[in-house]
Amino acid sequence: MSPAISIHTPFHDERRKLMPIENVYPIAEVIDVLRSYDFGKQRRISFEYIMFKGINDTQRHVKELRGCSMGCAAAST
Q1: Environment class of 58 (CB within 10 Å of its CB; exposed 0-12, middle 13-18, buried 19+)
Q2: What is the pTM of this model?
Q3: Cβ neighbours around 9 below 10 Å, total
Q4: Cβ–Cβ under 8 Å, residues 43 and 28
Q5: Interatomic CA distance for residues 14 and 49, integer angstroms
């Protein structure tokens, strides 16, 4: 199993509008759990981000996403 985490915006209020699951599983908590999880035998985890023009495509979003990913090893394809 290779889990995929849909982010789409790193900001709580924006994410709640795009993804109601934010009310149940806030992305900040999900990232914290991932940072503490032992992925020793886990093949990979994917972070998904769909860009919506004028909604989640600013430099502000890029900077915050970078901060969210700190502490998580990453490879891009």
Answers
A1: exposed
A2: 0.71
A3: 24
A4: no
A5: 13
Spatial CA neighbour of 71 closest among 32, 16, 18, 26: 32
Q: Quick check: 56 and 8 in contact, CB under 8 A?
A: yes
Q: Which amino acid is at 25?
A: Y
Measured CA to CA, the distance from residue 63 to residue 38 in angstroms comes to 26
Q: Can you give the residue ranges of every domain in the chain?
A: 4-69
How far, in Å, CA of 37 to CA of 60, rounded? 28
pLDDT, tens digit, for every residue of 26-75?
A: 988 988 888 887 777 766 778 889 999 999 999 999 998 887 765 565 54
Query: Would you mind telling me the total number of residues written for the chain in this entry?
Result: 77
Amino acid type, 3: P
